[in-house]
Structures are given as structure tokens and as C-alpha cells.
Amino acid sequence: MKNGQGHKIVHAITQWGPEATGSTRAAGLMRIGLGVIALIRFGNELAPYAINGLIGLSLSVLLFGFAFTTILGIRARLSVAGLGATIMLLYALGLNGVGLVTWAHHHVYLLGMACLLLSLCDCGKSFSVDRMRALATQGRVRPPAEFGALLGQRLIALQLSALYFWTAVDKSDWAFVSGQRLEQTMTWVHSGRVLEFVLHWPALLALASIIVLVVEYWLAVAILLARWRPAAIAVGLAMHISFYLLLPVNTYSITVIVLYLALLDPAAVHRFIDRMLGYPEVAR
Amino acid sequence: MTPDPQAVTDQASPAFKPLTLTSLRRYIFFTLAALILLGPAPGQLFGKHSPWLREWVMYSGVGVGLPKGVFTVHDASGPVAEYTPLQAAGLERYPQIVHYFFETRIFEDADLTRFAANTCEALLPGQHLSFDGVVGTRKGWVPMPVANLCPQTEDAP
């Protein structure tokens, strides 16, 4: 590779990643979505009726406090960082057997990491109390721009890519490709239930397994490439909705779907919302 | 030349190069990107597991320890009844709990006896229970045929 080309690639990567800036509306929407998901995931486990002792109370205060301030966008970056740290604390407690074992699940880790990474974005510049305060201070004549650093948004995109790649690596064996592992999963979930009939079609399960494996390897790359991204998002959404309907995935699917906002062109999200609200389009 | 307004410098120690916010952002980004992209590698490729390097192996263990096959009740005249795994376990369906909390998962022959304990208890004198089938493992279905699952019936006529 010529030196000039190398510099161009490094420049393109730094512009896409650490130097990324743009509309903060997608990040703002992700902030609200992740806050709501955190409330849904942990609400009934950390509400006052479900907790014991000072540690339980502390976790409850942290979770509910940060979740609400995250949703409302009050000191948004600090709030979403606090929410992420709290969720990762629950994850650590789950890993060490101090908290619920289910706190150590992959969907909890993903939610916590996503919140921490989002805190590296200017996610409070849109749809937030922070913005209302800025408007009150600066006035509506020259409203503060919904524009800022998006480093964290790019890292969330990489997190999704890594998730697809490594889960595909885990499935790259004969036991999965032959449909046996999917059949085992379906046996646990669907035996004696309405979709039990799928267990009688092992060829269908093998075909579904191969499709899932190919799609996950493809998504790992396609979500990062502008040319393939629209198709990748459509296929990914279909896959995660299928997971949600067929398997007890808890908040995993909905978290990934919210994080798909990180894959979209921030300017396109901004323009889309402007169009929805009937505002004239302004180039971003 | 005007100083870089973004520079974060330690004025007292000129040996250190100024760390600009741009550089700091790059260090943060590439460090986290490496952690995100390569973190699962030690565990998933080399078996060096760490709880802090999250591996993405969702649902890989769900269904492990479940039987697939036929439980058959025999008496002196031959087979008298066949049961599905759920029927043998006395269940209508597997419980809606995290799979590894299901206490009667099967990892060895003796676990099959625990799995079919209800059916064993209901056997009449002279009857015995066999299993012809496979059990789920991380490497797929593994045959685990057992001729007599209920040891107390071994000496029955």
C-alpha cells in the first residue's frame, strides 16, 4: 500500500470515529430508549417492594434516579454514564453471585455498555431538559445547535458489529449448522407449546441455522458500510423481531433495535424528524 | 506560533508532550474499539475466559441436558407404554425459567433417572423403564440409551 493511501485510510477512520460530529438527535433518541429499557428491565427487581437492606435501597435509588434523569435529559451525559455504571455494577453483582444470576446475562452487559458508550456523545443536546435550559439561556432567536461529538455513537456501531461477528463465530460448528443446537433451544422453549410442530421439521431448523449464521457474519460487516447498510438494517430488524417472537430474549432484541439508531446517518435522522414535525429542511 | 487552544499540558514538566483533546479522543476511541472488537477473542478462540471480556455466545447452552427420544415401560410380556420426555418427567411443558435453573437436566445416565422419577415411581411390580434416544450437549445430540432407568426395578421378575 502506498504511503498516501495509508494516510487517506487513517484519515477516513479518524474522521468516522474519534472525530465524528453531527446531529445529536439520533443520540438523544437512543438515550431515551435506553433509559426506558433500563426501567423495564430492572424496575420490578429494584422497586422498593422487591428490595431488602441498604444495598438494595442504594441500587434502587441509583437505578431509578439515573434512569429518570437519563430519559428526561437532565445533565444527560452524566446521567447516562451513571445509568451505565449502575447497570454494569448489577452485572458485576450477578457475576459474583451477590445479585440475581440473570443480571450477568448478555442483554444486561449490552445495555450497560451501550449507556456508557452513549455518554461519550453529546446525547443531551436533543430532546432533553438540558436543551430546554440552553434554549432558555440563549433564547429562541438563535437556538443552540443540536450538533456535537458522536464518538460514542460510532463505538456503539462497532459494538453491534463485534456482537454479530463473535456470536457467528460461536455458531460456526457442525452442531449449529446441522440444526441440532437450534433444535435443542426450540425443545426447551417450544415443547408442549403452540409452535411445537417446528421440532418435527429438522431440515427446516438446519436451514434456519445456516441462514442465521450467514446473516450474522454478513451483518458484522454490512452495518458498517454505507452501501449495504439499508439492506443490513432491514434484515437485522427482521432477525431481531423473529428472535423476540420465538425466544425469551428479555430486553436484548429491543436494545439492539434501539441501538440501530447509531447506524443511521445522523443528518438523515435530523432531516426525517424535521419533516415529521413540518419544519423546513436545513442542511446539516 | 500561537499555542493550541485545545492543549491539555502539564506546564511544570516540559518532558511531557502536550496531550491535545484531539489526541485524547483518539486514544479513547481506539482503546475502546480494540476492547470491543477483540475482547471476546481470548475466551472464544483460546478458552481463556474472563468475566470482564464479554463473550457473545447467546443461547449456546439453552437445551443442553434435555432428552429427545422415547421412554418405554416394559413388563415380562414386552413394551406396554411409550412416553415422550415431557410425559416421562410429568410435565406439560418445560418451565419458563432460565434453562440452567432447570434442576433435572441430564449430563450422565443417573440424571435420566432423576428426570423420569415420576414415571419410575408409577411403575408396577415387574415393570421397568428404558430410554432410547439422545441428550442435548454443546456439541449436538449425543446418544444415551439406558435399558433400565429405575434401579429399584432391576431385580423385578
UniProtKB/TrEMBL annotation, chain A:
It comes from the Bacteria. The chain crosses the membrane at residues 49-68, 80-102, 108-127, 147-166, 198-219. Residues 19-268 form the HTTM-like domain. Keywords: Membrane, Transmembrane, Transmembrane helix. GO terms for cellular component: endomembrane system. It is a multi-pass membrane protein. InterPro entries: HTTM-like, HTTM_dom. It is found in: Endomembrane system. Signal peptide: none annotated. The keyword Cell membrane does not apply. Pfam families: HTTM (PF05090). This is HTTM-like domain-containing protein.
Automatic annotation (TrEMBL), chain B:
Keywords: Membrane, Transmembrane, Transmembrane helix. It comes from the Bacteria. The chain crosses the membrane at residues 27-46. This is Uncharacterized protein. It comes from Roseinatronobacter bogoriensis subsp. barguzinensis. The lineage of its organism: Bacteria, Pseudomonadati, Pseudomonadota, Alphaproteobacteria, Rhodobacterales.
